[in-house]
Each structure stands twice: as structure tokens, then as C-alpha cells.
Amino acid sequence: MARNILVVAELVEGALSPTTAELIGQGTRLADGGSVAVTLLGSGAGGAGSAAFEAGADRVFSGDDAGYDQYNSDQWIAAVTAAAEQHTPEAIFVAQSTVGRDLGPRLAARLNTAVAMDCVNVADDGGALKATRPCYGGNAQATYGFATSPAIATIRAKSFDPIEPRAGASGETVALPALADSRTTIVGRELAEAAGLQITEAPIVVSGGRGLGGPEGFELVEALAAAFGSNRAAVGASRAACDLGWYPVSQQVGLTGKVVTPDLYVAIAISGASQHMAGCSGSKMIIAINRDPEANIFQNAKYGIVGDYKAVLPPLIEAVKAAG
Amino acid sequence: MHFVVCAKQIPDPETPPSAFKIDAATNKVIPAQGFQPVLSQFDGIAAEAALRIKESAGDDTKITVLSMGAESAQAAIKQVLAMGADEGVLLQDPAFDGGDSYTTARVLAAAITKLGDVDAVFCGRQAADWDMGQVGLLIAEALGWPAAILAKDVKIADGTMTTTRVLADGFETVAQPLPAVVTVSNEFGEPRYPKLQQIMQAARKTVTTQTHDDLGLDPSEVGAAGSRLKLERLFIPESGGQVELIEGDTPAEQARNLVARLQADKVL
To answer: I need a labelling partner for B215 at 20 to 30 A (CA). Which of A25, A108, A218, B117 fits?
Structure first.
């Protein structure tokens, strides 16, 4: 049953964000013969068209204007609704990102439809699209059907695979209207220094929690990450530790922080409440070090050490260094 | 000025995962023994944001707390009144049940319109049960107002709302004309804990109840009848297998054994 899909792309320095390619990939799988279009908004949109076609789109709506580079609701909404009016999609996908969290619900309201937020799957169930997403702090998941069209979903990073790039693919380019006005003035931005490996990209994430007892506990957490290799391991923190000011919010892992999917996640003095697990349960392997044998983290870990991190980490750091 | 705070009572998110159970027949969470429902924590922080602005303005800003729900919504209202809000509106009607974010926002927006003179609406960034994060924005869309989400700081002065909001990789400050909606995140800070005297004073504050008729809404537009997103299945996903607790007579031995496992698994 052919359906048109619209993907709202995000550009990072003129290139498609990794999640954009994932959404286009799933779009091609669900289109079933329909057309997959992508909105490209921002500087370099013109140049990103070929990447969109290689990723599986057959149509791009282009807004090559630096005015889109810092997301501004009124402007992005005007552009995406213009694309939707022309493309008449059955489904619209956006990443669950700074953009998607704001754009998703507004788009649903403007198009008189519904959005499912932070989805980990959107699939065809007997001809109807169903969205599955975590809820109850990560304790549960819910699957929804849509009573209205288009079905809009904001989608978690790494929920889908991109397709094998279609080298040399081409398609139709449609220019969008000029940048719209906005009621919102962006007064300023303060971006965290992108120093070193990002926790969302690192193959290994070593995280500390409230059980560290104080900010100085992170010295050992950082030392363990360094032992794995600073080009491989990044440091994360639970929300409790960040709320206490022990570690920067930019490193927060959890439902209201960042969702990470490393090969190895080491949880140190973290109880493993579901809101934290929501941020790390996609990890290939979880290891936990905690003084409390009853801690929920042990329900989600492959290996665990019940013990005081102050006693366990120094020899663990030496053992990891010796292995490397 | 007149501010509105939207509040929701939810099952306690501190309920340990081992006590979290679902009734598959009704797609509902079975209330865990010994865990009382609580005000969704982000709504408490939204109330805190409104109260701090009221206090620093030093004028007679009024704060009205709205909650949609059955009896449990009364507790949410009482909590925010005890924190310092002035009046409550309970939106209670069987027609409101079983809805989704869209119908919830529809009801709240109608109640805000009925109040007539609202300058700003404060919501939590997401309800800590469903974690959708839509209602604040949908209220803004229903009212045609600008909105800023994920606020870690909010200032209101001279007809402008200035919000510092959380981005994935930092913070951004935006300015929008009133009336406006803001959704507040945990980065804002801790909500105040009402003292006993404030809790008792709250019992004397006015709480009115409104139904779909009072709001001029048709039953087909709200609750299950008006919902657009249809919940089909609520379930607990399978978790991984058994943990292997690493043995060792000393932490050093445990550490070495763990590393040996990781090497055997080719992770190291």
C-alpha cells in the first residue's frame, strides 16, 4: 500500500545528521512504492540534496537559508507545512532532538493530526502505521495507532538503520518559499565546548551517580574512562549527580538527558532507576559497580561488582590499562 | 499579571521497577501498594518558576492552577495552592476521560480562554508518567501563542517572556511577546516544599470545578471520543538476562576477574 513519507532533515555543517539518514532509511522501507521527500533547511541545503537522494529520498524541498541554522519554530513550521501541503504525506518523521521536541507537536496541531514522541519504532501493522515509544520513565513501552493522517513521529536516534547509500541517485528538487517571520527572537546561545568524544558517539561510556558521594568521585570515573582510552571512552553522569552540580548537564544520561547506545556502558554508583535506564538500556553491554546488591542496575547489567567504587575502581583502572 | 500553572497527578515515578506492573486487559498501570500518586515533578518546577517571577515582580500577580482529571487532580491542585498559587480550577468530567495529549490540551486551552486575562502559562516539560512532552506546545497552538520549551530560566517583564532553554549541546535564550506558554525542565531548580501552615491555608483557597459544558466543548471533541492517538498496547519490554556478579576475595581480584571476562567477550 503506497504511502508518501516526509522526513524533516537536520543539517550539521551542510551534511545530513546521522539520524536524518536513519529516518530516510525507515521512510523508504515504509513507503512501499510511494514517494519519500526530505525538507532540507539551513545553509548548505542546496548541496545536501545529493546526500538525501543517496540516502533514499526521491524528492527534496530545499530552503537554503542561513536563517534556518538556529532552529526557530515559526520559520521551520512554515517551511515544513508548505512541504507537507505539496507532498501530501501519510507519515512525517523528525528526530527526537532539539528540533523535533518543538516541531513535532506544533506540526501535529497545524496539520490537525497527532504526533507520537520519542518513538523507538514506527512499523506497518496490517496496512496501518503504528508507533512504539517508551513511557513511565522507561519502565514500559506503548504502541499507538493514529486516528488521523498524516501520522507524525519524532524518533529516537539509532532506532533505525540507514539504507546502503544509492551512489549517484538523483531526484526532484523543489524550492521552498522564503524564510517566514517569527515571533521568537533568539537572544543568544551558549554551546558546550565540544571537547573530545561526545557521549552519544563514544563506543564506551563510563558514568557516575549519586552513590559517588560527591563531585570528587568523578576523578576516579574519569580515570577509568582514560584507562579505556580517551579516543574510545567518554564520561556520563546520572541526573541526580548533575542536579547536585557534580558534573555538567551536557553529560547527563537518562530520560531527560542524553540517550546513549555504546558498546560498553559502565555504571558506577548508579542505582539504575528506570529514568536512568531509559538513557542507557540500548547499550550493547552494561557493567555495574554498586555497594547495594539490591540496586536495580544489577537487573540490567551483564556483569556486576558489589562493592565500594573507591575500593574497586583503582585496581580496575590498573587492570584495564594492563589489558590495553 | 495573571499566570496559569497546569498540574497533573501521576503514579509515583520513584516506584521501584520491581513494583511496576501493567494490567494487559485494560492497558493500565496497576497502582503499586504503598506508593501514593504525586504531583508530576516537572509541574512542581513549573509552579516554582511562576512563583519566583511573582515574588520578584512584587506586585499582585495572580496564579491559577489547573488540573484535568478525576479526584486525583484535586491533590495536584492542593499541592500547587500550598506552594503559593491563589486559586484552582478542577476540570472534571467523565467526557474528559481516556483522551490523549491533543484532547488534554484542548480542555486546558478552553479553561485558559475562559479565564480571559492570562499572560503566561507554565507547564512541566513532560508528564512524568507518559513522558510525551506535547501538552504545553499544543496549548500554545490552540491559543495561537508563542511558546518556549525546556526552560531552565524564565523572566517576564514589559510584556516579554525571556526564556533560557536547554539544547542538546548547551543553552539558548529566546524572547517572545506575551501572552506565551513555557514548559519547564528540571535544570530550572527544585520546587519549594510547602510548610504545614501553607498547606492549611491552601484548604481555604477557592477551587472551582468545570465540565465540558462550562468550557463550551462538545463531548465528541474531548476524551476518548476526540483523541487522535489511540493506545493499543502498554507493556513491559523484556529485559536482558541474569547479571553475573564477579567473584573475588579482594576488590583487586574482582577487578582482574571482570577484565578477564571483558577480554573473553572481546570487549577489551
So the answer is: A108
For chain B, give the longest Cα–Cα distance: 71
Strand runs (DSSP E) across chain B, as ranges? 2-6, 9-10, 21-23, 28-30, 38-39, 62-68, 87-91, 120-124, 147-157, 160-167, 170-177, 180-184, 207-210, 229-235, 244-245
Same domain? For B172 and B263 the reply is no
Q: Pick from B212, B1, B191: which is nearest to B86 by CA? A: B1
Q: Which of B101, B137, B149 to mutate to test the interface with A (most CBs of A within 10 A)?
A: B137
Please tell me the distance from the alpha carbon of residue B147 to that of residue B169, in angstroms, as a whole number: 20
Question: Are residues B103 and B147 located together in one domain of the fold?
Answer: yes
What residues in A contact B230, CB-CB < 8 Å? 144-147
pLDDT (tens digit, 9 = 90+) per residue, A180-211?
999 999 999 998 776 778 999 899 999 999 99
Distance CA A253, CA A208 (A): 10
User: B235 in a domain, yes or no?
Assistant: no
The answer to whether the peptide bond before residue B11 is cis (omega within 30 degrees of 0) is: no
User: What are A98's three cell numbers?
Assistant: 532539539
DSSP classification of residue A137 = G
Does A189 contact B131 at a Cβ distance shorter than 8 Å? no
Q: Spell out which residues of chain B touch residue A305, defining contact as CB-CB under 8 Å.
A: 245-246, 251, 254-255, 258
Q: Whole domain around residue B117: which residue ranges?
A: 2-226
Distances (CA, A) of A195 to A192, A243, B10: 8, 22, 39
Q: Average pLDDT of B239-259? A: 91
Q: Are B48 and B154 in contact (CB under 8 A)?
A: no
Could you report the per-residue pLDDT of B206-223, keeping only the tens digit for each? Answer: 999 999 999 999 999 999
Residue A117: its chain B contacts at CB < 8 A? Answer: 131-134
Residues B260 and B127 placed together within one structural domain of the fold: no
CB atoms within 10 A of CB A232: 15
The predicted complex's ipTM stands at: 0.94
User: Is B231 contained in some domain?
Assistant: no
Q: Are residues B20 and B123 in the same domain?
A: yes
Q: Across the interface, do A192 and B169 touch by the CB < 8 Å criterion?
A: yes
Instruction: Please tell me whether residues B19 and B61 are part of one structural domain.
Output: yes
User: Which residue of B133, B240, B254 is in closest CB contact with A300?
Assistant: B240
Residues B29 and B111 in one domain: yes
- In this structure, are B265 and B211 located in the same domain? no
Query: Which member of B29, B132, B267 has the closest CB to residue A285?
Result: B267
Domain count, chain B: 2
Is B240 an interface residue toward A (CB < 8 Å)? yes
